[in-house]
Amino acid sequence: MPNAIRTQTFSESVIREMTRVAQQYGAVNLSQGMPDFPMPAPMKEAAIAAINGDINQYAVTWGAKKLRHAIADKYQRRYGMPVDPDTQLTVACGATEATASVFLALFNPGDEVIIFEPFYENYGPDAILCEATPVFVPLIAPDWHFDADALRAAITPKTRAIVVNSPHNPSGHVFSRAELETIAKIAIDRDLIVITDDPYEYIIFEGEHIPIATLPGMAERTVTISSLSKTFSITGWRLGYAIASPERSVAIRKVHDFLTVGAPAPLQDAAAIGYGFPDSYYQGLADEYRARRDFLAQPLRDAGFKFAMPAGAYYFFADFSALSKDDDVTFAKWMAREIGVATVPGSSFFRPGAPEGRKYVRFAFCKRQETLEAAVERLARLSR
Predict the structure, then answer these.
(1) 306: which strand partners?
(2) Structural contact between residues 50 and 270, judged by C-beta atoms closer than 8 angstroms
(3) CA 350 to CA 356: how far, in whole Å?
(4) For residue 280, is pLDDT > 90?
(5) DSSP calls for 161-211
(6) Mean pLDDT across 248-264
(7) How far apart are CA 152 and CA 148, in angstroms?
(8) CA 192 → CA 186, 220, 240, distances in Å?
């Protein structure tokens, strides 16, 4: 008996595949966006204390009260955005599960969802799994802006939502206030939901992070998704959340309940203290990633890569066409095998078969200084 047809329309994660390729060839892993340095010590200690304190059974399905209130307090304090932790906030097993829960809760078969391209690889499969149709609107290189007329033209009577990821993975583009206001106006005019995916909200070098839910008329039609993974370097803890109106949250919580029951209880308890860190922690996070970005940028250029300097997140989305006429998958595997640096093929951030991604690879700089130095030493082989 064959597997479900829906699973034949997308592949496994190329990002996670390239981590396995890095391990196979002993390459420096600049592919998957997972830090190789320690998480904050107070959160480690809190996790140990939670486990030893027997916080080891199910938490409330939609999230431990302590964490939900910490997240809600953060939004009020940082953005002036009121969030009711009891009716609007659902803690999930990472932003990945939060996104899947949101799509399954809000989209019907045949609905269309607009996704800016290039895009984080989960959005397309998430739409397909709920039998919605992803519709792609290009972000235009080299600065990865969008054309408002192209966005309007992509909307049909079947369109249900627009997905916005800022800071953007893979390009590092930070959507400006003007861009967000344009999206908001279109969403209001056409009665659409906006789903924002904001895991890099604290990792910004130029510009600012503006939750689109704070713009006039957008609170009720926005679903805000984010993660603790990037902010606290805890990608393996799998903690994220979705913020939505009480009515939409009811549906999101139903789906979340039957997907995972709930996120790990002791880790939720420990993670809550992170949002009590002083502002200096968050500024230090951005400053440290800026230094890593600046360290890697020139060696990449010297090696022959071309890219726009990322304004946020922790990736370079680099054009390698001056180095090779190979497609991106062939080039990325050659890089891992022969140069000893693992990247992600650019086509994994585009719709299947799209030619645009075949000249790009993505480098992650969320690494220790010695890891980046080892990568730079190996990248120098390209310019010899």
Answers:
(1) 319
(2) yes
(3) 8
(4) yes
(5) EEEEESS-TTT-----HHHHHHHHHHHHHTT-EEEEE-TTTT-BSSS----
(6) 96
(7) 6
(8) 8, 11, 24
pTM of the model: 0.95
DSSP labels, 276-300 = GS-HHHHHHHHHHHHHHHHHHHHHH
Going along the chain from its start, the domains and CATH numbers come out as 5-39+279-383 (3.90.1150.10), 57-276 (3.40.640.10)
Query: Strand, helix or coil at 244?
Result: coil
Per-residue pLDDT tens digits for 200-226: 999 999 999 999 999 999 999 999 999
Q: CA 266: distance to chain centroid?
A: 24
Q: Would residue 217 be called left, alpha or beta, if left means φ above 0 and alpha means ψ between -120 and 50 degrees?
A: left
What b/e sequence results for 217-244 when a residue is b if at least 16 CB atoms lie within 10 Å of its CB, and e otherwise? ebbebbbbbbbbbbbbbbbebbbbbbbb
**Count of all residues that appear for the chain in the document:** 384
Q: pLDDT tens, 348-359?
A: 999 988 999 999
Note the pLDDT of residue 8: 74
